[in-house]
Automatic annotation (TrEMBL):
Gene Ontology terms, MF aspect: thiolester hydrolase activity
Keyword Zinc: no
InterPro entries referenced in this protein's UniProt entry, alphabetically: AB_hydrolase_fold
SUPFAM superfamilies per the UniProt record, alphabetical: alpha/beta-Hydrolases
Organism listed in the record: Gossypium barbadense (Sea Island cotton)
Keywords: Hydrolase
Protein name per the record: Palmitoyl-protein thioesterase 1
Length: 199
């Protein structure tokens, strides 16, 4: 009984202060905490996630939508045993309905998707969103899953802007460096197959 009372008190304290200026300025995770039963305070006080998700009416940034929709692929990886993202399906932009903690709605049922606030619907309808489910806890991806689901998308695939060779384009240079970083990180060299086991 006492533990239930403590939980209720802690819950009230967190809800009353999580979107306060002080916590938003000093506690990074508070900027991406969305309490579905407190949407009004979330939209008014949360400084990061509502802007990133283009959730604020009258303040939607069309550049966010254009940039996300311009991606060649978007790989969304959900970890089966995730204890950081609650619910774990938020890795796929799925979430609870406003006002409740159940059920988890698929992303296609969310306003963010249906009204295409960030370009996710555009990407998905073009077949460019990959919904991947892997075992493990938050960000504990195995080398084999990394090779299977991430490495193939680290190869440069888009021609450079007109008048530039691919190696002159700054996006190519950045992308190439990221690709090489991940290949080095998981022990791949240019002559190794992607599915080579690294011990």
């Amino acid at each position: 009984m006492l533990s239930a009372v403590i939980c209720i008190l802690l819950d009230s304290l967190i809800k009353s202060g999580i979107y306060s200026d002080y916590l938003q300025e000093h506690l990074a995770p508070s900027g991406y905490l969305k309490i579905p039963t407190d949407m009004s305070d979330y939209l008014k006080g949360c400084r990061f996630l509502p802007k990133l998700n283009n959730e604020i009416n009258g303040m939607r940034n069309s550049t966010y939508k254009e940039r996300l929709a311009s991606l060649q692929n978007l790989v969304l990886i959900m970890f089966e045993d995730d204890t950081v993202l609650i619910p774990k399906e938020t890795a796929w932009f799925s979430y609870f309905p406003d006002g409740a903690f159940e059920p988890v709605l698929p992303v296609q049922a969310a306003k963010l998707y249906k009204e295409d606030w960030i370009g996710l619907k555009t990407l998905d309808e073009a077949g460019k969103v990959k919904f991947v489910n892997v075992s493990g806890n938050h960000l504990q991806i195995s080398t084999s899953d990394m090779k299977k689901y991430m490495v193939p998308y680290l190869e440069y695939q888009t021609p450079a802007p007109t008048g530039q060779t691919p190696t002159e384009a700054s996006s190519y240079q950045w992308f190439s460096k990221v690709g090489h970083f991940f290949k080095d990180l998981i022990g791949l060299s240019e002559d190794q197959p992607l599915l080579h086991t690294v011990y």
